[in-house]
Amino acid sequence: MKQIVITKQPTYTGVCVVEDKKPVEFWVERNSIERLVGNIYYGKVMNVLPGMESAFVNIGLERNAFLYAGDMLECEEAKNHTNNQLNVKVGDEILVQVVKDQFGNKGARISMNISIAGRGLVLMPQVDYIGVSRKIVDDNLKEQLVSYVDSIRKKGHGYIIRTQAQSCTKEELYQETIELEERWEFIQQSRLNHSAPALIYKDQSLAQRAVRDMLRVDVEEIIMDDEKLLSELKMAFPHVHKSRPNLFKYFDKPDQDLFDYYGLRKEIEGLLDKKVVLENGAYLVIDRTEALTVIDVNTGKYVGEKDLSQTLFETNMIAAVEIARQLRLRNIGGIIVVDFIDMDKKEQIDEVMKVLQTELNKDRIKTSLIDMTPLGLVEITRKKTSSMIDSIMLQPCPYCDGDGFVESDEHVVAKIKTDLNFIFKNPKTTTAVVYLSLKVFNRIFAYRLLEKECTKEWKDKRIYLVPDENKHIEKYEIQGFSASIIDLPDNARLLF
């Protein structure tokens, strides 16, 4: 059974594709963060870098967008599908589409090759050819679809026939070409009515894109917890609603969480964990860096039943299936390196690679697999389409600035010691009060970390520690006093 489950909350919208009660794809967008991919802008070229074969274009955002020469596709060059020559100059006003969201200090990546996606077709108004999804494997069906689309398309306009076209009727495909052409006409007219920079066309909402991109004949229901969204989807996809009136469903249980009801919440929250436990007790460790993602396979608690070779093989087989699912769930893109457990038998290696390739073939996103090295390493490349799940569901740590670590208790104590020595250089200072985290406070007394200093260089001084359970482990304040009587909080404790 396959379902698309959509929850619409005040702060975010979440979409989960479920196969046999297990989530295989998850998409989430915060309402406070605007998605740019798919949007079409009328931009102004601000800078051209011939040495980098690129240009920077002002499209009205905080940072200029990046245009690479290879994304400057022209009609007469459509057959080659590439153009590595800059054909813009500073001051030019051009129509562009965002193909990659801005991230960190990098602006959005844009293309002059405009495409407008429908459910079964993608219109490419600036090129004159018809492409077909590689996932349509029936050659006869391919020929029929190409022949039909060619007969109904507007002269000079290209189309890509999507996988979903297999489940569309001729009437639906014909109607979709009309709708896509109308959108293109609207975009062209809007450009004439605006001066650069300006947003000309905004792509569909997450829920609409989910139906557009993920709906197949094997999807039995699309269920959501928002009545307004239900009406929106029925209006956005009238032909789908007409042919399958029971497809769109409203989750009429306001006292229950939709994801909890379908048993999805716990696994979705687990997408933020580095460790993924497999069904046999083995586990994966997923580490993401700026350049690539590394996945390590470990046997964990699994000891097998026959021999070591079979144990390692079985673990790698289960891991191969889960790795492909995690790539889809977490939307991991770019370079992925998988460190499988070493296997000696070539037939076992071949079988693991076969299973991995089979599972990767289920992915809507373009993915390539490279053979396993003698060290058991496998390289996978997966096209980046949008932000990874962790970059949306997490935010930079306000304490460590994204380093992922905090200072050890001992290091914090060493810093406190240094600061106390500095304060006590003033001979008039006889008392010091240290406000610090509860964790470091407990560590000092449990291990008597500053006892030596208190009995020697600080033997004539009084030091009080004041714990605060809300204070960050690295933070502390020290106050020095020369008076013999000072006011202290009730939880202050004299240091040795």
Summarize the structure in words.
By secondary structure, the protein is of the alpha+beta class. The chain has helices at 139-152, 170-192, 206-214, 227-236, 238-243, 258-261, 265-269, 308-330, 346-360, 389-393, 409-423, 438-447, 451-455, and strands spanning 2-8, 12-19, 22-30, 40-49, 54-58, 65-68, 93-100, 109-111, 116-117, 121-124, 130-132, 158-161, 198-201, 219-224, 248-250, 275-277, 283-288, 292-298, 334-339, 367-369, 377-382, 431-437, 462-468, 476-481, 493-494. The chain has a six-stranded mixed β-sheet with strand order 16-17-18-19-21-20, with helices on one face. A hairpin with a 3-residue loop joins strand 9 and strand 10. The model is unreliable at 75-83 (pLDDT under 50).
**Helix content range:** 25-40%
Percent strand: 25-35%
Which geometry do the CA atoms define? globular
Number of continuous helical runs: 13
Q: Structural class of the secondary elements?
A: alpha+beta
The averaged pLDDT comes out at 88
Strands in their spatial order, largest beta sheet: 16-17-18-19-21-20
Features:
about 500 residues, alpha+beta, 6-stranded mixed β-sheet, globular
